[in-house]
Design a protein that fits this description.
The chain is an alpha/beta fold. The chain has 2 domains: 2-79, no CATH class; 116-354, Alpha-Beta Complex (Spore Coat Polysaccharide Biosynthesis Protein SpsA, Chain A), CATH 3.90.550. The chain contains 10 helices and 11 strands. The chain has helices spanning 2-37, 51-56, 69-72, 114-117, 149-165, 185-199, 255-260, 274-284, 316-320, 323-326, and strands at 127-128, 138-145, 169-177, 204-208, 212-214, 228-229, 233-234, 250-254, 298-301, 338-344, 349-354. It is globular. The relative contact order is 0.16. The structure holds 2-acetamido-2-deoxy-beta-D-glucopyranose (NAG) (2 copies) and manganese (II) ion. The site of manganese (II) ion has 4 residues, from loops. One 2-acetamido-2-deoxy-beta-D-glucopyranose (NAG) binds at residues 47, 49, 52, 242, 248, 272-273, 275-276, 316-317, 320. It catalyses: N-acetyl-D-glucosamine + UDP-alpha-D-galactose = beta-D-galactosyl-(1->4)-N-acetyl-D-glucosamine + UDP + H(+). Responsible for the synthesis of complex-type N-linked oligosaccharides in many glycoproteins as well as the carbohydrate moieties of glycolipids.
C-alpha cells in the first residue's frame, strides 16, 4: 500500500507543477502579445485619451521621434533657388549667427507692445525680413484665435524677437473665429493658409496655438523635409511628448506637404482630435514627423481655464478612426468661409472669419 500512496502523491505534485507552468506560460504569452500590439509602449503616459492607442493599432507608425538637430539643418535649404540674382544680398546661413539658445519667459510680467510697434524693421501686418541676408524660407505664422488678447500679447512679445534672431522672412496671421459658436481650430488653420497665400508667396506655414512660447531659439520655426512638430517638450506635459503620435501645439508644414495631405479637417468642432487627424494624414501620405530634440524643443504654455464653446468634441474618436476615408474630400479642397474683417496691426494681421457652425 505504501508505494502506491507515494506514487499518487507524486502524481498529484507533477500535475500541479504542469498546471503552474501552463499558467505561467499563458500569462507570459498574454504580456508578450499585449506589448507587441501596443506601439506606444515606450511613450510617456498619455494624458487621458488612451483610446488613441487602440484606434491606432491598425497602421504602422514611422515617427522619427527626437531626431537630432544636426541632421535637420541641411534639409529644405534647396527651396530657396528662386532668389533673384540681381539682388546683392546673399542667402542667410543654415544656422543663424544671432541665436542665443535657452531663455526664460515670465507670464506674470505686464506686456507693453508699443515699443515693439516702433521698431522700423517690422512692417505693418507683422511682416519682417532680415536686412543682412535673404531668408532661406518665407514663413507664415498662423494662429487660430478667439478671446485670448492677453495670450496674444505674450506671444507677440516673445515671438517677434525669436523669429528675427532666426533670420526668417515672416508674417504673423491671427485668424479669429467670428461669433460665439463652437470653436474649430483646424478649420481656422486652413483659412490662415489660404489667406496668407493671397498676400505673399509663402513656402512654409507654422500653425501655432496662441499660448505656446518656445524657450530656445535653436528650435527653428521653419519647414523641414518632413512635416515638423515643434512643441515637443512642453511644461504642461513635464517637458516631454504626451504620446508618440502627438502633433499638437505648434507644427510646421511646407506648402507642398500641406497640399499633399489636403490641408486639415474642417469638421472638428470643439476640443481635441484634430491634431491626431492631421498626424494620420501625414502618415497616410507616406510622410513622417520630424522633431527637434527635447532640450531645444522646450516650451511653455500660458495656464488658463478651458474656453467657453470649446468643450471636448464627443465625435473626435470616431473621426480620427476614419481619417483615411475622409481626408480626400474634407480639407483645403472643400474649405468655405467668409472674411468678416481684416485688421492690420503693426505686429500682426488679424483676419476675422465666419466659418459656420457644426
Ligand atoms: C516675473 O515677473 C513678476 C512681475 O514683474 C516678478 O514679480 C517675478 O519675480 C518674476 N518671476 C521670475 C521667475 O522672474
Ligand atoms: C489627446 O490629448 C492631446 C493633448 O492634450 C490633444 O492634443 C489631442 O487632441 C487629444 N486627442 C483626442 C482624440 O482627444
Ligand atoms: Mn492652451
Amino acid at each position: 500500500m505504501e508505494p502506491r500512496a507515494n506514487f499518487s502523491v507524486l502524481h498529484r505534485a507533477c500535475a500541479l507543477v504542469v498546471a503552474l507552468c501552463t499558467l505561467h506560460l499563458s500569462v507570459m504569452l498574454l504580456f508578450y502579445l499585449r506589448s507587441t500590439g501596443d506601439e506606444s509602449e515606450h511613450a510617456p503616459p498619455s494624458p487621458g485619451n488612451f483610446t488613441l492607442r487602440t484606434l491606432r493599432k491598425g497602421h504602422s507608425v514611422s515617427t522619427s521621434t527626437m531626431t537630432s538637430t544636426s541632421t535637420m539643418t541641411s534639409t529644405m535649404t534647396s527651396t530657396s533657388t528662386a532668389i533673384p540674382t540681381t539682388q546683392a544680398l546673399e542667402k542667410c546661413p543654415d544656422t543663424s549667427p544671432l541665436l542665443v539658445g535657452p531663455r526664460n519667459v515670465n507670464f506674470s510680467q505686464t506686456i507693453d507692445l508699443n515699443e515693439m510697434r516702433q521698431d522700423p524693421k517690422v512692417s505693418v501686418g507683422g511682416r519682417y525680413k532680415p536686412r543682412e541676408c535673404v531668408s532661406l524660407q518665407k514663413v507664415a505664422l498662423i494662429i487660430p484665435f478667439r478671446h485670448r488678447e492677453e495670450h496674444m500679447k505674450h506671444w507677440l512679445y516673445y515671438l517677434h524677437p525669436f523669429l528675427q534672431r532666426q533670420q526668417l522672412d515672416y508674417g504673423v496671421y491671427v485668424i479669429e473665429q467670428d461669433g460665439e459658436d463652437t470653436f474649430n481650430r483646424a478649420k481656422l488653420m486652413n483659412v490662415g493658409y489660404a489667406e496668407a497665400l493671397k498676400e505673399y508667396d509663402y513656402d512654409c506655414f507654422i500653425f501655432s496655438d496662441v499660448d505656446i512660447i518656445p524657450l530656445d531659439d535653436r528650435n527653428t520655426y521653419r519647414c523641414f523635409d518632413q512635416p515638423r512638430h515643434l512643441a515637443v517638450s512642453m511644461d504642461k506635459f513635464g517637458f516631454r511628448l504626451p504620446y508618440n503620435q502627438y502633433f499638437g501645439g505648434v507644427s510646421a508644414m511646407s506648402k507642398e506637404q500641406y497640399l499633399k495631405v489636403n490641408g486639415f479637417p474642417n469638421n472638428y468642432w470643439g476640443w481635441g482630435g484634430e491634431d491626431d487627424d492631421i498626424y494620420n494624414r501625414v502618415t497616410f501620405r507616406g510622410m513622417s514627423v520630424s522633431r527637434p530634440d527635447g532640450v531645444v524643443g522646450r516650451c511653455k504654455m500660458i495656464q488658463h481655464v478651458r474656453d467657453n464653446k470649446n468643450e471636448p468634441n464627443p465625435q473626435r474618436f470616431d473621426r480620427i478612426a476614419r481619417t483615411r476615408q475622409t481626408m480626400d474630400s474634407d480639407g483645403i479642397n472643400s474649405l468655405t468661409y467668409r472674411v468678416v474683417r481684416t485688421e492690420k496691426d503693426q505686429l500682426f494681421t488679424k483676419i476675422t472669419v465666419d466659418i459656420g457652425k457644426p
